[in-house]
Design brief:
Largest sheet: 6 strands, mixed
Structural class: alpha/beta
Low-confidence stretches: none
Radius of gyration: 18 Å
Helix content: 40-55%
Number of strands: 10
Distance between the termini: 22 Å
Strand content: 25-35%
Shape: globular
Order of helices and strands: HEEHEHEEEHEHEHEEH
Number of helices: 7
């Protein structure tokens, strides 16, 4: 596993973004882990998060793009910090763009925030985590209607590796199949589990044998089979 992936896993735990125990998800599922990207709140955390996104995008999709797009609301800061990180790490100027939940009817108007997409733009989309693909369903029509763009890929921070709406593939794979662009994650839960199992992180083992068994049982029920 790449060094930055190992660091990112520890970063999620350190930032209290990724927790282990017993959680009830919005779907009603009982999960042994929970991710809350809203826990990234400090300047240092956001700076580091942007760097991890930039490295993962570079490794998976390269540098052949012009715009980072983040769906509102959580995707707005993600698009900003990722654009900044590309300048810092690779000296590459990219623009950020997000959608507005409410269309602005004064000033410059419109339903996009930041850069206004132009024909020929190559776009990377960023999200925190994709569990159902709902935000992509909402924003894909908006950005493809704004201009004749090419979506080069979607990057999320964590692939939960759970079945999506179709009941077989994970949500990320369903998005890729439906819209025709590649998807990737900085890390997936298999990598997280393997790395953290019985390994001290911040002075504590967060995935002991009991949590590991609960995670294995969870994926027997909800894990993607394709």
């Amino acid at each position: 596993m790449e060094q930055y992936k190992q660091e990112f896993i520890e970063f999620m735990v350190e930032s209290n973004v990724l927790k282990f125990g017993e959680f009830t998800l919005k779907s009603g599922r009982k999960s042994p882990f929970f991710m809350n990207a809203g826990a990234y709140v400090t300047g240092d955390q956001l700076h580091r998060l942007g760097l991890y996104y930039a490295q993962a995008i570079h490794d998976n999709f390269g540098l052949d793009f012009d715009v980072v797009f983040g769906p509102a609301y959580k995707g707005i800061p993600l698009s900003v910090i990722t654009a900044m990180a590309f300048q810092e790490l690779y000296g590459k100027e990219v623009k950020y763009c997000s959608n507005r939940k409410e269309v602005k009817d004064h000033g410059e108007g419109g339903n996009l925030l930041g850069y206004n997409l132009q024909d020929g733009d190559r776009v990377i989309m960023v999200e925190d985590v994709t569990t159902s693909g709902k935000s992509i369903e909402e924003t894909h029509p908006i950005i493809t209607a704004a201009a004749d763009i090419e979506i080069k890929g979607l990057m999320v921070s964590l692939n939960r590796m759970e079945v999506g709406k179709g009941g077989k593939k994970c949500a990320l794979d369903e998005v890729s199949e439906r819209y025709g662009f590649p998807t990737a994650a900085i890390v997936n839960m298999a990598e997280v589990t393997e790395y953290l199992h019985n390994r001290p992180c911040q002075g504590k083992v967060v995935i002991d044998d009991d949590i590991k068994a609960a995670i294995d049982e969870y994926y027997k029920l909800y894990g993607a089979t394709e």
